[in-house]
Amino acid sequence: MTTPTLDIRRPGPHVAEVWLNRPEVRNAFNDGVIAELTAAFRALGADPGLRAIVLGGHGKAFCAGADLTWMKAMAGYSWEQNRADAERLAEMLWTLYSCPLPVVGRVQGDCYAGGMGLAAVCDVLVASEAATFCLSEARLGLLPATIGPYVVRAMGEQAARRYFVTAERLGAARAAALGFVHEVTPPEELDAKVAEIVAALVANGPAAVKACKRLVQDVAGRPVDAALRADTARRIADIRASAEGRAGIQSFLAKESPPWTSRP
């Protein structure tokens, strides 16, 4: 599945890696990258054998946002062309966010503008101590509109109120303090931490992991009313009665490994 701008790997039977592969432009994206990311995550999300996806970038930067050549072209776009272009970006972000599989982001360097959007749609985000983050759009007279819903969810409204308007840079430690980043590691330990999280994901029930991801997205921000209580009761009943749920409980009670785990 490797494309000219993406390096897609399968390091194990249940894991895929998607690498932004434009290090010469700090993995900045353009319309081609947007289309390829959309297609890649649609295909990987539908793969019944996969349980987790890692998203990273080759080179020194994770993603520096929009490609300068692409931005120059956009300067001459009409309003209709700009809207169509932005809608493709919005669709790409939604495809990653709504991917049924958990996505682990690996941020080793600069993560700016649209790159912050890519980071925000990941379910687990691991960053090197050397990584820097910036919502830089306001410096260019723009705004982080299409990435906004995901970044606000990831860092919270109060933090977004500041960093959207100031375009200040954030270190990895500060991003973690805001809740945007889950884990911060020394650069040499980044891959080991990502592998540790992926191993934890793969050890869990495949259907349960997908259901857990969907649960968070569906209940976040909703009032705990009768409809939500009924919905969550239905969900737990569904999974308890499923083949995976029954097998997991039986294995636990028998003190055996569940059937979805690898055995030597």
Intertermini distance: 29 Å
Low-confidence stretches: none
CATH superfamily of the largest domain: 2-enoyl-CoA Hydratase, Chain A, domain 1
List SSEs in N-to-C order: EEHEHHEEHEEHHEHEHHHH
Number of domains: 2
CATH architectural type of the largest domain: Alpha-Beta Complex
Strand order of the largest sheet: 1-2-3-4-6-9
| CATH domain topology of the largest domain | 2-enoyl-CoA Hydratase, Chain A, domain 1
State the name of the first-level CATH class of the largest domain. Alpha Beta
Q: Provide the helix percentage.
A: 40-55%
Q: How many β-strands, per DSSP?
A: 9
The assigned structural class equals alpha/beta
Radius of gyration: 19 Å
Main beta sheet: 6 strands, mixed
Q: Give the helix tally.
A: 11
Fold and architecture overview:
Helix 1 packs parallel to helix 3 and helix 9 packs antiparallel against helix 10. The longest helix has 19 residues. The strands form 2 sheets. Strands 1-2-3-4-6-9 form a 6-stranded mixed β-sheet, with helices on both faces. Strands 5-7-8 form a 3-stranded mixed β-sheet. It has 2 domains: 196 residues, 2-enoyl-CoA Hydratase, Chain A, domain 1, CATH 3.90.226; 50 residues, no CATH class. The mean pLDDT is 94. It has 264 residues and is an alpha/beta fold.
